[in-house]
Amino acid sequence: MKLWYGRFSKDVNEAADSFNSSLSFDKRLYRCDIEGSKAHCTMLGEQGIIPEQDSALIVTTLDEILRDIENGKLEIENAEDIHSFVENELVSRIGTVGKKLHTGRSRNDQVALDLRMYLRGAADDIISLLRNFAVTLTDIAEKHLGTVMPAFTHLQKAQPTTLAHHLAAYAEMLCRDIMRFEDAEKRINVMPLGSGACTSTSYPINRARVAELLGFPAVTANSMDAVSDRDFALDFLYACAVAMMHLSRLSEEIIIWSSDDYKYIELSDGYSTGSSIMPQKKNPDMNELIRGKTGRVYGDLTALLTVMKGIPLAYDKDMQEDKESVFDAYDTLRASLVVFDGLMREAKFNVSRLRECTDGGFTSATECADYLVGKGVPFRDAHAIVGRLVVYCIENGKTLQTLGLEEYRRFGDFDENIYDAIGAETAIGRRRAPGSPSPERMTEELADLRKRLSE
After folding, report:
1. What is the DSSP letter of 169?
2. Which of 159, 176, 376, 341 is nearest to 250 (CA)?
């Protein structure tokens, strides 16, 4: 039975009824809906709005309904939405007393509560998974403090760094993602129940008591805003989108690094796939999927922003479109984090190949220029000298490491110390400013990462 049947003289058109229904996706809110209803009903009894014995019976029966859903005895079906399902099931079990549950509330503030409760749990879950993945990257980085690799700008080899430095950069991104979800939770964790359809209720309700029962630290300040606000959902979606962007960036690097031209990393068979026609293929499909699914989560954020952009106060049915975007973004990010964490734990890095690519390029060109600066050559002039050295090396098939001392001396004031100066370890070790890749600084950063991730 529709909760609003009294105003209507005939049933809703079958196609319209299906179009209007949200049960197929909002049924995952069942626990939030039942817990919210229990708190509301407890308050109704305490306030004397309904008899306390009726309140107790309703709460007990709601607990039974929850148990029956979770043990598979009760299937969620044949209702307009999860709120209708729970109330109809309640009434079918205890009759007229069950019809008192909805006193002093509307589905407008009820769904706002359910979504906030759901997102509070979802944010906590994502924060935990982000923390796990950041710890995984920190663990790997700690094993590779001395693993030399090229740093890139414009996808061109730039300067020598370490694998620890590179992976720690992504751990820092994940730390910021955690902060974004924690910040979003501040706005999620505000209790809207008691706002009614849009102007609250004339019953002597106790909103603070409901908030206390549900663990909300605050209640919404304006009933019209409370039922029409989805900023908190947008905050959650934005945090999901940024986190997916970070996973996509790392995925792009893993895809490149695992290619036959790079060979920086070997992915586990457990996180790779093959080709139906090319027997030799081992494809980084997990990372390609994460890269692709990032666009999907961007779409979820854009969809809700677009839904909300023209809605007048207060509640409008457009807002039913909020949940599918939120659920999809949460599910997608969650699955991506679980898979990526396992993938990185089983991946193997090709340390010798990383070293070869560092020495084989011109990543020490800046160190070469700094060497000349140490001999009194202005940096700009030193930059030009080393630029000409690089051209000479390219034309003669050499690197800065294989260039002979006499060849060096054709271009400037070089001596045998140049070879030590342009060594990758020397270049990395000299970078001691906070945030740099020297072993001392990286040890400090990783320790700080662990501290932040444990708090």
Report:
1. H
2. 341
